[in-house]
Amino acid sequence: MLFHYVKTRKRQAIHLAINILILPLLLYMFHYTLKDEPNFEQIYVIVEKVTIVIVILLVGLLIWFLKSKEQFEIYVTDNKLYSYHPVFKEWCFSVNPKDIVEIEHQLSMGAGSMTNINVHLNNGQKHQVCQNYSFSREELYSALQRANPKIKLPDDANLFKHKLSRAEDEYISTRFPVATKIIKSVFKIRPNKTNRSDDNNQHD
Fold first, then answer.
1. Is 3 domain-assigned?
2. 150-167 burial by CB neighbour count: b if 16+ within 10 A, else e?
3. Across residues 17-28, what is the average pLDDT?
4. Domain range spanning residue 144?
5. How many separate domains does the chain show?
6. Which contacts of 60-67 are long-range, i.e. CB under 8 A and separated by 24 or more positions?
7. From start to end of 44-124, where are the E strands?
8. pTM strictly above 0.85
9. For residue 28, how many other CB atoms are within 10 A of its CB?
């Protein structure tokens, strides 16, 4: 196996247990710091009850985590890139690394920025790699490259770049012609050619 990462519910339970232990400490600090304030007793009763409810809920979640057998798993072999997420099926897939054309880091700009790791296959299909777990992308990409040296990988495993659509490129070039020429010459930026058909469809 070239790469393997597993995240079980029990590992999540450890972090949850630490948070449960911290809550009484926070309650004590709240009492110690603000005990001389006016109306403290009335406020403390409410805070204490809320804390107890939160602890009970977290303990219930902790027990569920400890009993759960679900886990996130991603691995690479010479013939398989496998990803399984226990909740979100869009992050579940199994493909042959030989069929992968490119691993793309996509940064979408708008009301809120969003990053995606897209796996492009030679048949035109696309899958997404989950980013919610702390596995090493450098090690994952290195394993994929060993399985298929022809895969196009991001220049930086931790960097996401926004690809300009042709419409965005033309707008920026019109508004800031000199700066655009300088930036493009230095960084060799090109508009995203994949959006050309989309732009043509919008004009039709």
1. no
2. ebebbeebeebeebbbbe
3. 95
4. 71-162
5. 3
6. 61/16, 62/13, 62/16, 62/17, 62/20, 64/9, 65/9, 65/10, 65/12, 65/13, 65/16, 66/9, 66/10, 66/13
7. 71-76, 81-84, 93-95, 100-108, 114-121
8. no
9. 10
